[in-house]
Amino acid sequence: MSSEAGFTHFTQDGRPVMVDVSDKPSTKRVAVAQARVRMQSTTHDAIVHQAVRKGDVLAIAQLAGIMAAKKTSELIPLCHQVPLHHVALDLAFEDTGTSGNGGEAVLVIEAQVDTAYQTGVEMEALTAASVAALTVYDMCKALDRAMVVEQVRLLYKDGGKSGVFQAPQNA
């Protein structure tokens, strides 16, 4: 459903509806999202040395993120079911200079999602990054309940009528 102001999730009488994208052409679309998990350096060490009882934290978080991207329309109200052509997650520890000796470590999770469809994949990328971060928390919470999942954000988007979005570097 569209209006003069553009696409909307509401009818003229205020009822929610899924936006009708059937008239839009299918185009290649890509989105990259990021989430960060701050943790104690001892938690970092347990992850890196695969000493977490629940298993390989990074591999399981990657799988969870991919699975979540595929289920986004079931999690986010009024989100379209989008055929995904590619989903990849990269998980890497950031060099904060404070790890070791009781410092902190930061795991950076980036999710990239691609499709050729009538609507974008920003929500799929954001969902993938978020669920991967929550999986890390779940797997490591016995070691570090003070972990912080933070800064879930869209880094990049291309395709469709609105064109390219690139997040500012210092945001």
TrEMBL record:
Active site annotation, chain numbering: 138
GO molecular function: cyclic pyranopterin monophosphate synthase activity
SUPFAM superfamilies reported in the protein's UniProt record: Molybdenum cofactor biosynthesis protein C, MoaC
UniProt cross-references to Pfam families, sorted A to Z: MoaC
Entry keyword annotation includes Lyase: yes
Statement: the UniProt record of this protein carries the keyword Lyase: yes
Family of this protein: Belongs to the MoaC family.
Oligomer status and interactors: Homohexamer; trimer of dimers.
Protein name per Swiss-Prot or TrEMBL: Cyclic pyranopterin monophosphate synthase
